[in-house]
Structure formats: C-alpha cells, structure tokens
Amino acid sequence: MKVKKAVILAAGMGTRMLPSSKVIPKELLPVIDTPAIQVVVEEAVASGITEIIIVISPGKNTVVDHFKPNLELERHLEERGKRVILELILRSNNPARITVAEQRQPLGLGHAVLQAREAVGDEPFAVMLPDDIFDCPRPCLRQLLDVAETRDAPVVALLKVARSEISKYGIVDAKAAGDRTYELRGMVEKPAPEKAPSEFAIMGRYVLTPDIFELLAAGKPGAGGEIQLTDALMALTSRRKIYGYEFEGIRYDLGDRVGFISAQIGFGLKRPDLADRLRAYLKSVISQE
To answer: Which superfamily does CATH assign the domain made up of 5-255 to?
Structure first.
C-alpha cells in the first residue's frame, strides 16, 4: 500500500473556539506563529504526501489562500532585507499539490470525508484533523503509513486517555498485534466510561482504503445526528483487518482551550528564540502561587 494523498478536514464552524473563530477560521489560529493548517500540511509533506485535498465549508477560502503566494508581501520583505521572515513566508507557498472539496452542510466527520471521494479516486489515502497537532520524533502520519504499508491495511492513531475523557472520543475494542500495534475488533463513538470497550481513543490521523467511501455513502446518521466516520470504520472491520497504532509522541487538542494553551507552551519551549524567556515566565508564575 502506497499513500500519496491526504484529506485534511477544515470544514465546520469552530464552535469550541468561539469567539476567536467567529471571523478567523480555527484552522488559521496559530501554534506560536504558524497556523494550525500549515503545521498539519507540513506533517503530511514530511510523511511523503504529495497531494492534499482540503475539505472546507462555504466561506472558508482563506484556509486555502494561506498556501498561495503573496507577491506584494514578499516584495516588501525582500526590499527591507527581512530574509528570515521571507523564508518563513516562502515555505508556506505551494508545499504540495493542494485541491479543495466543499462540505456544504455540517453533517459530521464521515460526511466531510465523503466530499473528497472524487478527488481521492480509487486509491488509499490519509485523513488528518487540524484540531489534533502532534509533536513526535517521527511525524505521526509517517508512523501510521509505515504500519499501513507493512500490513497492507487501514490504520488509525491511538492514544490511551483518562476515563474521565472517554466520552469525548471514538473508543476502540482492540487486541494486541505487535509493538504498539492493535487489531481493531470494533469501536464506539463517545461512549459512557462504563460502557467503553477500552481506554484507547482514536486521534485525528487515519490511513484509509477507498472502500470506506461506499460505506460512508450508505451510512445513516449516528451519534449527534451526524454521519460518523467511526460507524463506517466499524462496518469496514467486517470486510478487512483494521489496525490501530499507539503513536510515539505528544498530541495537543487545539479545539480545547487548555489544549491550545498547552500547545503554545510545549512548542514554545522547543524554540531557541523563545525558550529561555518562556521558561523564566513560567517559573515566575509558579513561584507566585
């Protein structure tokens, strides 16, 4: 299995991050100084992806515009000798072949994936959620692709979550199948903790086969009245093996306020130009408690 296409889901209204997402799409909210959507695109490219389909809702064209050249801005920076900033801007220009699909109604994650059917065609593909940002020794998506290519099967990213968090996620029923690898036997969307089959939650990275589209198209609304990707994945387990991989690294939820702040701190402490001042500030805050 060779995967060259990724679908990034950037539709939706960003209600978890209102009021900041009232005008600015939440995918453009920054991790330090880099929009979340760019962080995810860079992960895809670093994983070997060459074509990206961004699924947007009506009116969110600025998410895609971010990757287009801004000649006036580039000329302004060039003339003033601001080469470092210019290089950062140029890095965001056309990092891969990017196309757009539109989700006209907010009918769920599975419905959003379905909108990319024509662009994906009959080949395996990755799905990436910009709310989930990863800090990993190897790109999180690359970790999944390695498993998918070895097993010739779909793979989802797994993270063991606290019982108090279980009702926020799709939770899998799984059995061990290798180092950090699990074969999925089923999954439940946002179960009550006492009804959850495990503590492993699906995070926002998937490697899927094109037969998922048939199941999504035939799917009926599930939890929340939406077409759930987990329902299609559960149906797919009756046709082929699906694996989960407990990725190595840290995941930040940018759709959660604490997760958003944690991402700024976590990535800030890795920046040589910011780390010392940020660490000093954090120490001063802690000392005042």
So the answer is: Spore Coat Polysaccharide Biosynthesis Protein SpsA; Chain A (3.90.550.10)
